[in-house]
Amino acid sequence: MKKLDYENLPSPCWLLEESRLLDNLKIFEKLKKKSGAKVLLALKGYALWKSFDTIQLYLDGCCASGLHEAKLAAEVFQKEVHTYAPAFKENEFHEIATLSHHLVFNSPEQFRRFSHQAKAINPSLSLGLRVNPEYSVSPKEIYNPCGIHSRLGTTLENFDEGILKHLEGLHFHALCEQDAEALEAVLENFEAKFGKYIPQMKWINFGGGHHITRKGYDIDKLITLIKHFKETYDIDVYLEPGEAVGWEIGTLRATVLDIVHNGIDIAILDTSAEAHMPDTIIMPYRAKVQNAGTANEKSYTYRLAGNTCLAGDIMGDYSFDKPLAVGETIIFEDQMHYTMVKSTTFNGIKLPSIAIQRVDGSIDLVREFDYEDFKGRLS
To answer: What is the CATH class of 2-13+250-335+343-376?
Structure first.
């Protein structure tokens, strides 16, 4: 690792602020203490493993979406590993079962196919089934796991009571960046459909999408909901947030490479919305830029654009107090979650470096990427 200061950070670069991460983790510490719930890090949303030594002091383990995430959780986080996938592959299953503590199947068919094999491989495994409560108020259909014709989770109509003698837990996931009030409504639907099976379970996993660390989130309501559920059923409750762990804990720093004009001023950056912050296009949402306003709010407006050949590689229109110049730094706020885990080298663009600002203010450069990283994932 190299020691750096702000002026010498490479560009582009993700910069994790350890003090902000700790602020989030202390919220989870309060939640766990007051509710009795266990909290897992969802690696699909945040997997900067160089920060796991800090996170593992506060959380109970990781939830993985397949073999590679399960291996990362077991090797680096070294606490509980809960693995779920829409479908498991035969040639990966032995290793997944060996590494995992909880194994959650998506359908009764997969449960029947793999459950006996799983227990033979790892007798201590706790087996679960993901269910679909068929209710969600997800803000975007692309992120709605309970939408019409969803492949994620088993509906009550397709539930097979024949697996109950081997089933120890139920898992649902129905939220996306939502509050405790949304969870309350989901729980009502979950209990209405699957409540008769809950007393037979050892645990229930409330999934992710809980925006616990967002300002204004009603954490006291969440604590009340969890405590009431635990007291009603005498059961363990798990949550698996990813975005909430990585919420507002770091930035993506980029540099202006050129400014062109075609009806509006366009600043071309050395980063990419498509490759480095894809959720700004998929969700879509507008990333906040440090010291910038909306279009025409300030004196000078620019369209910020990525350095790939995709016409739609655009971050949006932002205004600034003074004109931008080639070589100037642009800082995108809140770029730790669902960025690194989704980033690509599309068009051969270089991946951002990764740096961590420690609590004492020092900065460690923990990863740089080069041509070999681009070449190595191709053939």
So the answer is: mainly beta
Residue-wise pLDDT for 284-304, tens only, equals: 889 999 999 999 999 999 999
Q: Is the Cβ–Cβ distance between 144 and 135 less than 8 Å?
A: no
Q: Can you give the residue ranges of every domain in the chain?
A: 2-13+250-335+343-376, 36-246
Angstrom distances, CA of residue 248 to CA of 60, 94, 306, 335: 22, 37, 22, 7
**What pTM was estimated for this model as a whole?**
0.95
Residues 6+ apart with CB under 8 A from 372: none
* Residue 213 vs residues 180, 241, 248, 273: alpha-carbon distances, Å: 12, 10, 9, 25
For the chain, the maximum distance between any two Cα atoms, rounded to a whole number of angstroms, is: 68
CATH code: domain 36-246 is: 3.20.20.10
Extended beta strands in 65-213, E state: 80-84, 102-105, 126-130, 169-171, 203-205
Strand (E) or helix (H) holding 3? strand 2-4
Question: CB within 8 A of 332, min separation 6: which ones?
Answer: 251, 252, 253, 254, 271, 277, 287, 288, 289, 290, 315
Reduce the secondary structure of 214-231 to three states and give it as a string.
CCCCCHHHHHHHHHHHHH
User: 239 with 39: CB under 8 angstroms?
Assistant: yes
| Predicted local confidence at residue 5, as pLDDT | 80
With a CB cutoff of 8 Å and minimum separation 6, the contacts of 2 are 364, 365
d(CA 254, CA 302): 15
Q: How many CA atoms lie within 13 A of 289 on its CB side?
A: 22
Distance CA 37, CA 322 (A): 49
Rounded mean pLDDT, 213-229: 97
